[in-house]
Prior knowledge:
With 70 residues, the protein is an all-alpha fold. The protein has helices spanning 3-15, 39-54. It has 2 helices and no strands. The radius of gyration is 13 Å and the shape is flat.
Amino acid sequence: RAPALANALAQVARSRGVDALDAGLHVQVSALDGVHLDADAHRVLGDRMARWLRGAPGVSPSHTTVPHLP
């Protein structure tokens, strides 16, 4: 939703030597209110984060984004 914000947060993470995951690459906010995640989006985001943290094949930490997963 806010590419400039995602980029700014990635820069802050990089300046502090930590990784960042851009959730906006993996899920969208609910059509109900346009702000919050629905249950399915929470499940998908949790799965992506778990795979990223475990170092799943094809999912490597990055200082800017994590590749989109199927």
